[in-house]
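Per reviewer request, we include the raw input and output of the structure prediction for the construct analysed in the revised manuscript.
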Amino acid sequence: MYSATKMLLNGHIQKRRIKCGKPSCRCTKGARHDAHYHVWHLDGRRYQVFVRRDQVPEYVAACSLNRALTATLRAGRAEYKRILRRSREMLQTEKT
């Protein structure tokens, strides 16, 4: 298990209702447990890692931070492409 406190994580946190499989547990009678998983896709494959209950806020923050950074980088890339296109147009008008 790794710490998510200083990481940017792809994916999301998924909450599932599961049965643990212990014969004396309450979930054998129908009351299921909450389990959290960090889920992400890479090269067309789906990966998941169990996240302890006390680590869920850290993982949620790391996933949210990654989404925000990705959005900022995409917006910056679009702006860069716009400026590059404009400068090429200006160079073309100077040559003619």
